[in-house]
Design brief:
The chain has about 475 residues and is an alpha/beta fold. Helix content is about 60%, strand content about 10%. The chain has helices spanning about 40-55, 70-85, 95-100, 105-120, 125-160, 170-215, 235-245, 260-270, 275-280, 305-315, 325-335, 340-355, 365-380, 380-385, 395-405, 410-415, 420-435, 440-460, 460-470, and strands at about 1-10, 10-15, 60-65, 90-95, 220-225, 250-260, 285-290, 475. The longest helix is centred in the middle third of the chain and has 43 residues, at about 170-215.
């Protein structure tokens, strides 16, 4: 896929499509896993579907995976499977987009109402009645929660006057008024207790009825809450509390998509380092599941390698005729280093940019360039030290060498069975960085220069090239 670009009257360049990141997968509500199952997760999705169909009683599932492992893509594809295969209704809520709100209950309820209105409003009277009942019940619960919050705030603000030495300094009149206020709050709470309790019960019944109208044949209604770990800590925990205490009903299942380690930090931020965050979270979660990175059955290659090859095709990577060689090496390296899919995307983006900015005729070593791309994304502080080495014989440089070879697994590699791909990779980096006779060879001097040129390409060439390209770029029809 090439086109000719005229940069200046005397300079002609070949233009190649460049993607810094892969184009997003187009996942619709009906997509499922048929069109794309890059990570072979359909079997896991089928097991998860069986679980929610057979579940009895309220259920809150935590779907856990580190950042950048494709959680959002998975649940969106799973929604398509639920709809097509089982006619199960499911709703997706991005909690991070909604955490500008203070009221977690209303944030979820509004999403449920909007989704249900779109699905049910054009149907019969029963569906419309269920929608109206849910709306009314939501309003009543919201009022009850707002009153409870207001009472708590008044009590808290009063406490500073009623405690400690300040109590002796306030007048008897103020003390009497505060006493009346406290009596009124208690009296009101007793009177409203039954009414509020009935409001919560009515809300659960309305939600259960709505869920039955949305999903057929007694199947559950699935509420998927994504990005919970990226929310403000107070909003995330408020969501969990409301799901547990207000939304808990028999045929509505919540699936919380999150990074459990990060969510635990939200608990620690709110309640202090002394709390057992994971035990606290288990109070709100019925079942914790790990989203598998690798399928449970044998593959010809791991998920990470598979993803590298996919990105090379999807991003139209051009590596001066060495696309297959780069793809194979980077797949092995990213798999061994256990990198996240998001890190892999950034690494391939760096390679794509580097190849775009370097002349076809210039020497390139795949081991060095692949290692530098990985280093710049995963260990940027070490990358900066490597590309700025001036004296290869200094103690500082030897320390950098140790860290870098340790990062690439050189020391564990020495005791392992030698692999076809890793041996030349390690030897190349050793030749460039370690003090030995081989470092004086012309080949190694070229590699050292390649390190400097790589850094220059990504840092200095971008502003140099971008301005004239913007100014003079004339694209011809392909």
């Amino acid at each position: 896929m090439f086109s000719i670009i005229t940069l200046k009257p005397s300079v002609t360049l070949i233009r190649r499509d460049f993607y810094e990141a892969p184009p997003p997968l187009e996942i619709t509500e009906d997509s499922g896993f048929e069109e794309s199952d890059l990570f072979r997760r359909k079997p896991f999705a089928e097991s998860l579907t069986n679980l929610v169909i057979q579940a009895e009683g309220p259920l809150v599932i935590s779907l856990d995976a580190p950042w950048g492992e494709g959680k959002t893509t998975f649940v969106k594809q799973w929604r398509g499977m639920l709809k097509k295969d089982e006619n199960i209704a499911s709703m997706y809520f991005d909690a991070f987009e909604g955490d500008y709100q203070d009221d977690a209950f209303l944030a979820i309820s509004a999403e449920v109402y909007a989704y249900s209105k779109e699905k049910l409003y054009a149907q019969g009277d029963n569906e419309k009645k269920a929608l109206t009942q849910f709306k009314t019940a939501t309003i009543n619960v919201s009022k009850a929660l707002a009153k409870a919050g207001a009472k708590t705030a008044i009590k808290a603000s009063s406490a500073s006057f009623l405690d400690g030495s300040e109590l002796e300094n306030i007048s008897a009149g103020v003390s009497a008024e505060l006493g009346k206020l406290t009596d009124k709050l208690i009296d009101d709470a007793l009177e409203k207790h039954t009414e509020n309790k009935n409001s919560f019960t009515t809300f659960k019944i309305a939600l259960e009825t709505l869920g039955r109208e949305l999903s057929s044949e007694g199947k559950p209604f699935i509420v998927i809450i994504d990005e919970l770990d990226r929310c403000r800590p107070d909003f995330a925990l408020n969501l969990l509390e409301k799901i547990k205490h207000v939304f808990s009903t028999s045929n509505v299942i919540f699936v919380l998509v999150n990074n459990s380690e990060q969510l635990a930090r939200s608990v620690e931020y709110t309640y202090g380092q002394g709390i057992n965050a994971h035990n606290y979270l288990h109070k709100f979660i019925t079942l914790s599941l790990k989203l598998p990175k690798k399928a449970d059955f044998a593959l010809s290659m791991g998920d990470t390698k598979n993803y590298v090859h996919y990105l090379f095709r999807k991003m139209n990577i051009y590596a001066h005729g060495q696309e297959k060689s780069y793809s194979s090496l980077l797949g092995e390296l990213c798999e061994e280093l256990n990198l996240s899919f998001r890190q892999v995307e950034k690494i391939i983006g760096k390679l794509s940019l580097y190849m775009l900015l370097t002349p076809e005729h210039r020497y390139k070593d795949k081991h060095l360039i692949s290692g530098l791309c990985i280093l710049q994304v995963v260990r940027p502080e070490l990358f900066e030290k490597v590309v700025n080495i001036k004296d290869y014989d200094s103690a500082t440089t030897r320390d950098i060498v140790e860290k870098l070879l340790d990062f690439f697994g050189y020391y564990s590699y020495r005791d392992e069975e030698k692999t076809d791909w890793k041996s030349p990779f390690i030897i190349t980096w050793q030749a460039v960085l370690q003090e030995s006779k081989v470092t004086e060879l012309p080949f190694v001097q070229i590699l050292k220069e390649e390190i400097k040129q790589y850094d220059m390409s990504l840092k200095d060439l971008i502003p140099v090239v971008a301005e004239p390209l913007v100014k003079y770029w004339v694209e011809q029809p392909e």
